[in-house]
Design goal:
single chain, five-stranded mixed sheet, hydrolase, DNA binding, Restriction endonuclease, type II, Eco47II
Length: 266
C-alpha cells in the first residue's frame, strides 16, 4: 500500500485494485510499443516524405522522429487500451460486471446495461441506430431495464434521454439514457466526484508504476540498423520505401551544406 486509508479517498475501488488496473493498461501499451527492429518499423512501409515534413516543421532530431513515427503506428491500438481502461475498471467496482459479449458494462442487480464510448462523435448514424435498437430490444426483454450510452468525452456533463432518428422517425425514451462519464460514475458509486478523483489519482499512480517497469527504447536500435543501409540517416529513410525507384540508388540531397544545422541531418 502506497497511501494511507485517510489519503485514499476512493472507497468505491480498493487501492491495490486501482494500481493493478493501471499497471495492466501500461503493460498492454508497452507491449504494443515493441517496434524495436527495422523490419517491424517498416512493416507497412513508412512514408519518408511525410517524415521529412514532420522533421522540419517540428524541428525533430532523428531519435525523436523515429519515436514519433512509432507512436503514430501504435496510436490506434493504444486508443483501444484506453477504451479497455474505462471499461475494465468496473471489474473492481462492487455490483458491476464486464461481460465478454453483449453490453460493455452491466449491473444485473439494478437492471442497468451500458454501451461505453470514448468520445461523443465516435458513432456514425448507422452505428447509433443499431445501438439504440439493441437497447430497445433489451427493454422489451426486461421491463425493469435501463440502458445507458455513456460517453467519456461528452459535449457536457449530462444525464438525458438519448434521442435518435430511426427510419425518419424521432425516438426517445426515459429508460434509454445518454450520459457523460462523470454522471455515470455518480450513479455507479454514489460519489458525485468519483470520476474527478480517478483523474486526480491517475498521474501519480502511473508515475509510481512506471518507475517499476523498465521499457527499452527502440529508437537507437532502429537508427543503428538504418546506419547499415547508408551513412546518411535521411538516405536510409528514403531507401526503406524507395530503394527500387528510379534514381534512388544514387540519392543525393541538394546543397547538403545548408542542411548541416537541421536536426535530421546531424
Amino acid at each position: 500500500m502506497y497511501f494511507s486509508e485517510e489519503e485514499w479517498d476512493m472507497p468505491f475501488i480498493a487501492q491495490a485494485d486501482f494500481f493493478t488496473h493501471v499497471q495492466n493498461t501500461l503493460l498492454s501499451m508497452y507491449s504494443k510499443k515493441d517496434i524495436s527492429t527495422l523490419k517491424k518499423f517498416n512493416q507497412n512501409l513508412v512514408d519518408p516524405i511525410k517524415l521529412t515534413f514532420d522533421g522540419f516543421t517540428n524541428s525533430l532530431n532523428k531519435e525523436t522522429l523515429i519515436s514519433t513515427e512509432i507512436m503514430r503506428q501504435v496510436d490506434k491500438s493504444m486508443t483501444n487500451d484506453i477504451g479497455k481502461f474505462h471499461q475494465d475498471i468496473f471489474h473492481f467496482i462492487e455490483g458491476w460486471e464486464v461481460p465478454t459479449s453483449g453490453f460493455d458494462i452491466e449491473n444485473e442487480r439494478d437492471h442497468i446495461y451500458v454501451e461505453l464510448k470514448n468520445k461523443h462523435n465516435t458513432m456514425n448514424s448507422s452505428s447509433s441506430q443499431k445501438t439504440y435498437m439493441n437497447m430497445q430490444k433489451k427493454l422489451l426483454a426486461d421491463s425493469n431495464a435501463t440502458c445507458f450510452l455513456v460517453e467519456v468525452i461528452a459535449k457536457k456533463s449530462q444525464n438525458i434521454n438519448w434521442k435518435v432518428k430511426l427510419d425518419g422517425e424521432n425516438y426517445d425514451h426515459d429508460k434509454i439514457r445518454r450520459v457523460s462519464i462523470d454522471k455515470f460514475y455518480e450513479l455507479a458509486t454514489g460519489d458525485s466526484n468519483a470520476f474527478e478523483k480517478i483523474c486526480s489519482w491517475l498521474p501519480i499512480v502511473i508515475k509510481i508504476i512506471k518507475e517499476r517497469i523498465t521499457s527499452d527504447t527502440a529508437e537507437n536500435k532502429i537508427i543503428q540498423e538504418l546506419n547499415q543501409i547508408s551513412d546518411s540517416f535521411m538516405n536510409s529513410l528514403y531507401l526503406l520505401s524507395f530503394e527500387s525507384y528510379i534514381g534512388f540508388d544514387n540519392l543525393e540531397f541538394k546543397h547538403l551544406n545548408e542542411l548541416e544545422e537541421v536536426p535530421l541531418f546531424k
